[in-house]
Design goal:
By secondary structure, this protein is of the alpha/beta class. It is about 30% helix and about 25% strand. The strands form two sheets. Strands 1, 2, 3, 4, 5, 6, 7, 8, 11 and 12 form a ten-stranded mixed sheet that branches. It has a two-stranded antiparallel ribbon with strand order 9-10. The longest helix is centred in the last third of the chain and has 23 residues. It is elongated. The relative contact order is 0.22.
């Protein structure tokens, strides 16, 4: 059951320095460091290739074909936030465009992730306002039906609470719970350090078969080499 017609105005956000620490890493690294969880479905794509964003979430629950709650959400945005919008049911209508982006940027928003459609993509790229969307769609929306702002929402199969940190780049979108931001950033750095060590060995010619000790389990599984 959805909570409709509700706006929570008091959102706990992680320390900006902790969010900045997480912003150093790409989505695959964060996903792996967090235990291979937190990814949104891969149909959420950047509306222009260089889009990237990281910040605490202002969450929005939309009704299909209606972007009223995105205008309500703009009032709740604080500097550095990312607006994350789910919908009560699947919809690819063009909920968001350049005018809403201009409004949200004026309030401090860094970008948008939406399980719905977006339009005005050339203008969004020109103003470098990152949007990650289900679809690019010129179809307009109405402003009639109540949803909610700053409630838990499901966006592209990922559960996100207000204040959780969203990181999005060309490889996808990952959600980091706000109480795990520090630990995930540390784990991500550890992973980057380990990968750099492996990268050097690969450059020197070491095979993954040996680096990851794959030969014995492959033999046990029945792999045979034939001259």
């Amino acid at each position: 059951m959805f909570d409709l017609g509700i706006v929570h105005t008091d959102v706990h956000r992680p320390d900006p320095e902790h969010v900045a620490a997480l912003d150093r890493f790409d989505v695959p690294t964060i996903h792996e460091a967090m235990g291979r969880v937190g990814l949104m479905r891969p149909y959420i794509r950047p509306v222009y290739p260089s889009a990237r964003v990281c910040g605490p979430a202002v969450t929005v629950l939309l009704q299909p074909g209606d972007n009223w709650m995105l205008h309500v959400a703009a009032e709740q945005v604080r500097e550095g936030d990312v607006v994350v919008a789910g919908c009560t049911t699947e919809s690819e209508d063009g909920f968001f465009g350049e005018l809403l982006a201009t409004s949200m940027r004026a309030q401090g928003a860094k970008g948008l992730v939406i399980d719905g459609g977006c339009r005005d993509t050339t203008q969004l790229e020109d103003m470098d306002f990152p949007v990650f969307a289900r679809a690019i769609n010129s179809k307009g929306t109405i402003k009639v039906t109540l949803g909610s702002v700053n409630v838990p929402v499901v966006c592209a199969n990922a559960l996100i609470h207000p204040g959780d940190v969203v990181v999005a780049d060309h490889d996808g979108v990952v959600v980091v719970p706000k109480d795990r931001v520090v630990s995930v950033a540390r784990a991500a750095q550890d992973r980057v350090d380990r990968e750099e060590s492996k990268r050097g060995k690969f450059r020197d010619g070491t095979l993954g078969l040996d680096l990851y000790s794959m030969r014995e389990p492959l033999e046990a599984a029945g792999l045979k080499y034939i001259d």
